[in-house]
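User: Write out your own:

AI:
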Amino acid sequence: AYNRVTGRIIAAQAGWCAGMGHTDPCMSISAAISQAERLQHDLWVLYIDLATFFPRVRRDIVYASELLAGLPPSVLEMVALIYGEHSDHEAAVKCRYESAGGLGDAFENWMGCLMGCVLSPDRCKILLNSILAAINLVARGVTLFGASAADRHRTWDRIAQAAFADDWCGVFETVGDLRAAWELWASWELITGSKLGVKNLLRTAVRGVRWLDGRAHELADPQLELNGGGTVPFMGATEYYKHLGTWKNLKGEWEVAWSHPKHGLKKKFMAAVARCKSMRKPSRDALVVVGNALLGGLGGAYLQTMYISRKQADTIESAYLRVF
């Protein structure tokens, strides 16, 4: 029954969907950033990351979102018998903490979606679909590359958001769109029992850039208010944000994504070369197979959404050829 409603999920969601990966939303956001520089228009980017998403959500709200998605009540009643209702503590499923000291005593888990349960991703995907649908109704986002005001289908050729599971990113040309999307997220956080993660500018954050005469100028902090007090962290246009494993800034620069001492792509490639070097007396064919799998896999995953120079590529090739 849950598989049959997958087609009703907003296309911006790439997480928990067959045939989709983290590079799909990355490519959309990278295109929007590159386009802003090319067409010289303002760009606002809002990153949302939900902290401990599965365990926090309210089951009654999940139930309501599933009902609105078209799931039969009989199916939802069966799920309620497995999980227990949000307000029914005594009938809730029993869980135990596992630690180095062994299993703890059983306790009633009456909230959230169970970690590790094969049904939880589908349930949370349907819940997240509610906020994606709401944002589509209030924010126009960014016109796709090459779509001008004279295009006949200009109202369709826009992107406002891209999501991979509970990692969400919105792109907007106006601060009005940005605020409209943020107000929905702030309300949705309270209604669903979720919590927005705000830690060291690596989770929920906002940034903006204005392109004039080929140069990037930072926009002022929009002061988006958090429910718990304070405002969403504001990042400069030249600062890097790690979005779905790739470091990005609003100037379309990739230097940190390549050279970051801990998470840079160069370090990942060199680690793959080191694995090849650690093989014990491999044949040439075996070394080629392992090299293609490790280096080719990294290249396929990361180079869809970032650029490296010929000189940088030669650095990796030379290191591998020395092993070969």
